[in-house]
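Morning run. Coffee first, then this:
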Amino acid sequence: MHKELAEEQLVNQAFQHLLDCYMASPHRKKEEIITKAFHFAREAHKGVRRLSGEPYIMHPIAVAQIACQEMGLGSTSICAALLHDVVEDTDYTVEDIENIFGPKIAQIVDGLTKISGGIFGDRASAQAENFKKLLLTMSDDIRVILIKICDRLHNMRTLESQAPSKQYKIAGETLYIYAPLANRLGLNKIKTELENLSFKFEHPEEYDSIQSKLASTQAQRDTLFQQFTDPIRQALDTLGLHYEIKARIKSPYSIWNKMQSKHVTFDEIYDILAVRIIFTPRCREEEINESFNIYVKISQIYKSHPDRLRDWLNHPKANGYQALHVTLMSRQGRWIEVQIRSDRMNEIAEQGFAAHWKYKEGEVNEDENELNGWLRTIKEILDDPQPDAMDFLDAIKLNLYASEIFVFTPKGEIKTLPAGCTALDFAFQLHTFLGSHCIGAKVNHRLVPLSHKLQSGDQVEILTSKSQHVDPSWINFVSTAKARGKIQAILRRNNRELQKRGEEILKDWLAKNELQLTSSILDKLGEFHGTPRHEELFLQLGNHSIILGEKDLDEILGRRKNSNSRNWLKYVPFIDSEKRRPKTNPKEPLVVGQGFDRKKPCILTPSSIDRYLFPTCCHPIPGDDILGYIDNKDRVEIHQRACPVANRLKSSYGNRILDAKWDIHGNLLFDATIEIRGIDRHGLLHDVADVISGELNVDIRRLTIAGNEGLFEGTLELRIHNRDECQAIVNSLKKIEGLHEVQRII
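And here it is:
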């Protein structure tokens, strides 16, 4: 009884805190309907608990708290957040919600129910499909996706109570889908937290290592910040502005990402500290002028980098972000980025304009056009469904991550495009007809090919010909989701006839051999020819890339000896077979059956490692963070958690992800590849070989080096026991004179 009273008090306190935050916000006060939604949700979820043991109602309250406090949303969104799990988890229907709370709240709750994939349940479906549903719903009311992001943020904050396999799935999905979505909607603070939490659960050791290094270098950064900003404060005081200067520290995930992409250590990252100047303009019309006045003032103190001035004041990013970025050389010899923003711009950068533009009384904002333009692009892709949901997700991600450039039409109209896009992307952006018949373009009155990459400020005229048709090679150089989607749609239409012909060829051939077309036969032929998708098999039959013969018949009838037992061995090319086991027949791969416990980790030992598959996309070695994936034949593949293929699998097939751990203890040898770059000199190769074979006593399987104009690059293929040994080799190689970049290739 005492426990029940304590829990009730806890729930009431959490709700009161939510109500207090709402009442302190600038929204119109509608506390009655919020209180009504709370009581309704509490009653609906009565007796249900989360995995952490707390009453379930604490989750909807926490989601509503994020929506109110961290996104600045109003009563409609708060009510929808409180009710977001009611329809999915209880006997209440959307009609019940509509009768009690009205059509608007019911519409948002219905949208949230539609896109729920049972993220924490066994009924999780392919997440790419959920993402598709999510985007379709989002085009009706942006608040659906905003509340979904709040829901995901709270789930990430409480991920500790989940099993490791669920943690990897949810963290991977968050990095793949929700963080870029939050970024695209201008929710910078939430995006950063989602990334950091995902990183923390996927790579706990690296996360802790970076956190401790950030803590140990804090005093150093504080001193640098103080010395750098003191002269700036004195200069700004002369302008008579009301301002504050803040230090912005790079997030652990951003630091780790940079360490991976640039192949540098923590100590080699020089932009961990940035400086933010946030000021209150004298009037809104003057905020851009005053931003530039601040820039002029501080660039008189420090030398600015000529190529690193970023003007997002006159041309805001597509997610509404506005600021002026300048990079200055400090007196300590370090480049430091300074971000200049007004308080309004800062609020948009922190909370996202999506929370403000559409639902505040009497306000219409130009930002609406930006967001609706993006939603239109997504709808166009959705209108032409892709056969593969992962292709769709990748296409959308191209738009989510891209930064923008500004391109002019021949008439001087400005068009916003993702950075790195080509003349062909621009043609498809204007019109599908222009794209599909494009033969080239004139950029700044100069003739360029379709693949020419556009720069900000280019004036582009598209040249077309009626005789031109879409070519499959175009897919290799377009970068926008819209162009890629249109090209694929046109190619699919062109391929349908060939596929039909291929199907007829296969049916005739099977009939001659007294067989009938079945899914099983298609699967066998697809695997035999390396074309698992049936449409691709028909296409290759239709254009005569595949000619059916006796070997195909053997494959269908299972007349090849030992085909199944040997086929999977191609997955384990990098484990040294001599040391791995005595020369006996290879073990059959582990097959996940009904009694298999998915909650227990797969333990990789010298005796069990033969039973797992190691695809060639990444080469995990003992010490790497790994996970298991149950493939279509119920066998278990082992991937590095940071492997790009694993990221896709976590997002699309999360319910097939397993936890996996090493228990090898240096008994086996694994292949690892190390890439080296540096300045060429006499005797360098001797030094490299001496360190590896002499000092470290490691076998070199292959060494490839090429020199060009005084520089060299090469790869070393080694046999090692584990990740620590590999890191020791990398550290030793870095000490060699002239070697500037040393990294292990995944």
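The longest strand covers residues 670-679. Good start to the day.
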